[in-house]
Amino acid sequence: MSNVSSVELEPGFRGTVTGITRAGYSQRATVEIKKADGRTVASTTLVGKGENVPMTQEVNPALPAYAFGPFAEPMTVKVTIEFATDGQHFKRSKEVAPVTVIKKPDESSPQTYVVSTLLSEDSTDNDFNDCIISIFQYK
Ligand SMILES: [Ca+2]
Predict the structure, then answer these.
(1) What is the CATH superfamily name and number for domain 5-138?
(2) Which of 6, 55, 125, 128 could form a disulfide with 46 if both were Cys (CB 3.0 to 4.6 A apart)?
(3) Distance 29 CA to ligand 1 centre (A)
């Protein structure tokens, strides 16, 4: 379990950050794109609530995904997941460090696809499905 959930973005890759909720409490995921020196150069917040509901960007509920890249230098995506039982006062959720699956180029498909899944828990049943964030990148 980790309180710092980060995924590396290789130069030239582009992709999306999306999330779903499976929770009665409000969920909030702060997504920060950071340079190697630690500075945040872009960010957004995904919000959502309910069973099997796609999260949307807080600044525009019509946007279910945050799109990024490609970048000229290595970047890191940091995700911070929080929940609010009353919809207003957010607290940190428990997070499982992201698990990443990489599909490398092969003869039938020259692209590299990378999918990182971040699970979190807002209560005591420890099913770690209350807010699920997916970071998809490809080149
Ligand atoms: Ca739970």
Answers:
(1) Calcium-mediated lectin (2.60.120.400)
(2) 55
(3) 16
